[in-house]
């Protein structure tokens, strides 16, 4: 069955870095665009960074531009989120999403991993 399993979250001080990982299985990885979302308490889930249908084009939330980077390994079927210069407002549960390149309604979510930025 389809699985997306995030890891790498935790507690980090402001200015620090974390690398989140999302291990996937159960679907044809190359046929999906990978995205990272986050949800802070009391807030809606928001897109942090995501691959788009245009080759090599990635979309970033304004709040993370220049600090966060998405990457993927098609052999390992993994996607990563490198987060640098973390701020307290980056505190949230981070979710990995696989979105079909073809069908809008064909997508899968991971269970999320908590990131807390605090001194």
Order of helix and strand elements from N to C terminus: EEEEEEEEEEE
Count of runs of 4 or more consecutive helical residues: 0
Shape: globular
By secondary-structure content and strand pairing, the structural class works out as mainly beta
**Biggest sheet features:** 7 strands, mixed
Gyration radius over CA: 14 Å
Q: How much is the average pLDDT?
A: 96
Which regions have little confidence, pLDDT < 50, spanning 5+ residues? none
Please bin the fraction of helical residues. Answer: under 10%
Count of extended strands: 11
First-residue to last-residue Cα separation: 40 Å
How much β-strand is present in the residues? Answer: over 45%
Walk me through this protein's architecture:
There is one protein chain. The protein is an all-beta fold. Helix content is 0%, strand content 52%. It contains no helices and eleven strands. The strands form two sheets. Strands 2, 4, 5, 6, 9, 10 and 11 form a seven-stranded mixed beta sheet that branches.
């Amino acid at each position: 069955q389809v699985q997306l399993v995030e890891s790498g979250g935790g507690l980090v001080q402001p200015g620090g870095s974390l690398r989140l990982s999302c291990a996937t299985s159960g679907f044809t990885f190359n046929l999906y665009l990978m995205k990272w979302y986050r949800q802070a308490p009391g807030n809606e889930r928001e897109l942090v960074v995501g691959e788009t249908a245009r080759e090599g084009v990635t979309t970033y939330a304004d709040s993370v531009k220049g600090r966060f980077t998405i990457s993927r390994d098609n052999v390992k079927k993994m996607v990563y989120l490198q987060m640098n210069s973390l701020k307290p407002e980056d505190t949230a549960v981070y979710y990995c999403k696989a979105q079909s390149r073809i069908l809008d309604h064909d997508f899968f979510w991971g269970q999320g991993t908590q990131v807390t930025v605090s001194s």
